[in-house]
DNA sequence: CGTGTTTGACCAGCGC
DNA sequence: GCGCTGGTCAAACACG
């Protein structure tokens, strides 16, 4: 399949409603690594983002909750167009919220029964809380793999069905990026192996599943195109890389110590992206946020260094 | 041959 | 229990 074919998105669905699509690199480094830090961008850089526009790409982030897990999407649109409204909107508004939540993994009580206050729908307090993958499902898969190696998949699968009661499925924290881009699979410095593709309900665009190829790194990402805005790619990362980006090993980013899961961008918001019908949301009410300009709060200034190093290095 | 993609099948969770 | 959906597996395949 040629690059042009991928960009044009013909969708020859097979009978399982999957289409044939390949992954494609992207000419700039993108913060796949959950350690990257949009807040280390200067205000000037945010107002005048470099690189992204040249590649017809924009990013936006928001944050939301999913059951026990916290979903983090930083509302950091480098291009302050209305694109990011979908992401920010997702925090406060049910329809887009559900859309993005589905994109980021699933809908749930948090999205369908939003908290009473807009602020409460966004939790930034537990960024250090790396939620372990459900041990039962993981063990099951491990058993399946082991069983496969032993040539006895079914046996191990059946065994794995005997799981402890009361175990509740938990997921790694996720970060969803909405990116205005012609290509789906944005280059982010890490190597990914595609392990699945599924049709998305109510969307003509499939969702692709990728796993970090590094050994012992269980970071996954999903890539899908927004149904509402086909020019927007929603990339959802799950988990933390336990290694440096291969693309930055020779660069300064490799010298940076790995960070825990990024603290959240509660205040990294853009008024022009906020839903008009939520005038009391935190986005508007935060005293440090100018109604005209995006702001970076001092206490957020050390986040995501890898993003700067890998992203800016390639585009300045 | 190593690496990555494709894709049919399978499983778990959830709602009804 | 059943059907639907999201997520994953893994054999087959493609490619450099």
Account of the protein in words:
The protein has 316 residues and is α+β, with helices and mostly antiparallel strands. It has a domain at 179-242: N-terminal domain of TfIIb. Helix content is 22%, strand content 15%. It has nine helices and eight strands. The chain has helices at 3-8, 43-47, 85-92, 94-104, 109-112, 135-149, 153-161, 282-285, 305-313; strands at 59-61, 63-66, 69-72, 174-180, 192-199, 206-212, 220-225, 232-238. Strands 1, 2, 3, 4, 5, 6, 7 and 8 form an eight-stranded mixed beta sheet that branches. Helix 3 crosses helix 4 and helix 6 (135-149) runs antiparallel to helix 7 (153-161). The chain is globular and about 60 Å long. The two termini are 31 Å apart. Residues 1-57, 61-168 and 249-316 have low confidence and may be disordered. The chain binds a DNA duplex (16 and 16 nucleotides) through helix 6, helix 7, strand 5 and strand 6. This is Probable WRKY transcription factor 71 isoform X1. Residues 158-168 have a biased composition (Basic residues). Residues 103-174 are annotated as: Disordered. It is found in: Nucleus. InterPro entries: WRKY_dom, WRKY_dom_sf, WRKY_plant.
Q: In oligomeric terms, what are we looking at?
A: single chain
Structural class: alpha+beta
Overall form? globular
- N-to-C series of helices and strands: HHEEEHHHHHEEEEEHH
Main beta-sheet strand count, sense and barrel state: 8 strands, mixed
CATH superfamily of one domain: WRKY domain
Helical residues, percent? 10-25%
Subcellular location: Nucleus
Keywords: DNA-binding, Nucleus, Transcription, Transcription regulation
GO molecular function: DNA-binding transcription factor activity; sequence-specific DNA binding
Organism: Sesamum indicum
């Amino acid at each position: 399949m040629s690059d042009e074919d991928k960009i044009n998105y013909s969708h020859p669905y097979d009978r399982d409603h999957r289409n044939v699509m390949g992954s494609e690199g992207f000419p700039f480094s993108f913060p796949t690594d959950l350690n990257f830090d949009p807040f280390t961008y200067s205000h000037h850089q945010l107002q005048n983002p470099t690189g992204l526009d040249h590649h017809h790409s924009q990013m936006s982030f928001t944050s939301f909750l999913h059951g026990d897990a916290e979903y983090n999407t930083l509302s950091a649109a480098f291009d302050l167009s209305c694109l990011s409204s979908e992401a920010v909107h997702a925090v406060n508004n049910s329809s887009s919220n559900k859309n993005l939540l589905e994109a980021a993994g699933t809908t749930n009580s948090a999205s369908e029964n939003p908290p009473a206050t807009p602020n409460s729908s966004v939790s930034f307090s537990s960024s250090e809380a790396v939620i372990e993958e459900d041990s039962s499902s993981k063990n099951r898969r491990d058993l399946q793999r082991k069983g496969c190696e032993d040539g006895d998949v079914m046996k191990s699968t059946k065994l794995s069905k005997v799981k402890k009661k009361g175990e509740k499925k938990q997921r790694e924290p996720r970060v969803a990026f909405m990116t205005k881009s012609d290509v789906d699979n944005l280059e982010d410095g890490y190597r990914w192996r595609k392990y699945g593709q599924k049709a998305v309900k109510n969307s003509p665009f499939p969702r692709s599943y990728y796993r970090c190829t590094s050994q012992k790194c269980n970071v996954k990402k999903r890539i899908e195109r927004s149904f509402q805005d086909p020019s927007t790619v929603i990339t959802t990362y799950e988990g933390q890389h336990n290694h440096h980006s291969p693309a930055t090993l020779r660069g300064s980013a490799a010298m940076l110590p790995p960070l825990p899961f990024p603290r959240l961008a509660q205040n990294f918001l853009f008024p022009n992206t906020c839903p008009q019908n939520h005038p009391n949301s935190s986005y508007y009410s935060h005293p440090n946020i100018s109604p005209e300009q995006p702001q970076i709060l001092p206490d957020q200034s050390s986040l995501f260094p890898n993003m700067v190093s890998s992203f800016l290095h390639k585009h300045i």
